[in-house]
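Handout, page 2. Input:
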Amino acid sequence: MTTLSTAYTAATYGADGYEVTVECSARRGLPSFEIVGLPDAAIRESENRIFTGSDSSGFPIPSASISVNLAPADKRKEGTAIELAVVVAIYRCFGFIHANTEDMCFIGEISFSGEVRPVRGVLGMTIAAIQNGRCEIFVPKENLREASVACREGISIYGVDSIRSLVEHLAGRAPIPPTETNPYAALADRPSTLDFSQVKGQYRAKRAMEVAAAGGHNVLLIGPPGSGKSMLAKRLPTILPKMSYEEALDATKIWSCAGMLSEEIPFVLERPFRSPHHSLSTAALVGGGKIPSPGEISLSHNGVLFLDEFPEFKKDALEALRQPIEDKVVTITRAAGRVTYPSSFMMVCAMNPCKCGYYGSRTGKCTCKPADIKAYLAKISGPMLDRIDIQVEMPELSFNELTDTRPAESSSAIRERVEAARDLSRERFRAAGFSDWSSRSNALMETDELRHFCALDEEGTRVMEEVFTRTNLSARAYDRILRVARTLADLEAVTKGPREADGMIGGRVKKRHLTEAAQMRALDRKYW
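Output:
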């Protein structure tokens, strides 16, 4: 009987994984089983699953004093993904497995019947194992497609359905065929049933959504019921640039950690679109729980967070959004530890102008009192409004607009301009020497970048001075107008050229860009 053996597995911390070394010691003595290394309650309960599952598989564990250490011992381990590696380490101690497992990683939960059950966070754990030099990864069969997204040359990923099949594979008696190819490229292009051509009228709103997509700006849509706010918001992902492999990987890790992937949907192919109900709690929106899990803002990472009926959301939930909107990450602190999730999303908000929905409508159907309208709008705080770059009013459609049969511009045509404008902004960041230029957008420009990329001439300075003094802009709102103006200049360079003018990629920000950008956030002065 070998007294000491080692196997490798992985665990998750936030959306990312980290490697865990499983050390097993088996000694003659009274039968006992102990796991140390800061295991959670689920791991401490694994004894029954491991012993019963081994019996069912035909490999009963002999009576001995067994101790298992999970390293690093100072980091709390959560979940049941380590159980398969614990079985391997124990089996190596008792000689059931003789294979060299140094380059292998084992992930999975054990059932009483000896089957290997799927677990959350497999993609992040697989990536962590590969980064630590493991070239053979064993995961539950139901998680195989998800884990295969991380596959690359020299890496083999195996889908294991039971303890017995794993032992037979390691003994060379019944090899499990590996997945050695990444299926992402074959599945990445899937047509969408939603398209901007399906939206009647609302040309100003469509223009605003194009600008928002080109610069990554947040949008507020205000209008009566039936004006098309939700319809337009749901089609925003169809004009956003297609996700890169790295962006899809980041989004998939978060969804995997939240347990939202399945065998049919093993990874996130399209930009996420999350539309939570306004009754959700703050923890559900930003993340939380005893063991911090990702919330809606993290599930929207690299995609769109749509908040319909914006004023109906709980006040504390909306205010909790302010920091993630600025920092693009959310940090959740609990007694068990602190977890940081990425939350770089575009926020699209939709609301009626009053409780009944018809304030300012040309139909004159509003029944709200002035005090009721003021109270309704007051649910949205000034600091939250400051963080919304573009505000668009969407009136009711006229009969002519509703019955217009002329073909409207398609999402693919708009997306071409959006991607071209994003290319210009990335090229500008790259030329300026930013290391993260490939993931930046105009909405993420810091103060120094604004002063450089949005430098105003004398005429532009006069325009912004007039806007600032007449509308009592805050410093944050002033910067956001400049960011939108920069995006407008990029779109103009894409459609009219030149792509570089006055020594600036995308051209300089002009008076016409500033004027349009200021008009795109004028509704907070009209309503608030």
